[in-house]
Design a protein that fits this description.
globular, 27% helix, alpha+beta, 2 helices, 125 residues
């Protein structure tokens, strides 16, 4: 996947989340452990979102790419984010995954899979 597909997918996911009432707090938040694509609030939750975008010609589902190793990096990065943003620590952490499939050279979105509470914090929350 080239990086333009990822950026298109992340922007699409942000717009989708905003339409559903999420408040986007941050995007592409980096730590020494990795990156979280989108950080948002949804009522009592702070939501850490991983977005995976793949071309329709690729094998497998994009959400399958969020492996246990990737999940651990996301959780570690989320912990650092909450340490930096103590005003958000009262919110319940949640980890969502968005998988998008694109078609054509213009990377038009063909399919979206949004998984709420896709994995847990591994006992760290």
């Amino acid at each position: 996947m080239n990086n333009s597909s990822g950026k298109i997918g992340e922007e699409y996911a942000r717009r989708l989340m905003q339409k559903q009432g999420y408040l986007i707090l941050d995007a592409n938040y980096y730590s020494r452990f990795g990156e979280i694509d989108i950080i948002a609030t949804d009522r009592q939750y702070i939501v850490f979102v991983e977005v995976k975008t793949r071309d329709a010609n690729c094998k497998g589902e994009p959400v399958e790419l969020v492996t246990a190793v990737k999940q651990k990096k996301i959780v570690q990065t989320a912990l650092l984010y909450l340490q930096e943003h103590t005003e958000l620590q009262h919110l319940q952490p949640r980890f969502d995954v968005v998988g998008l499939i694109t078609i054509g050279q213009n990377k038009q979105i063909k399919d979206v899979q949004y998984i709420t509470n896709a994995f847990d914090g591994g006992g760290l929350f």
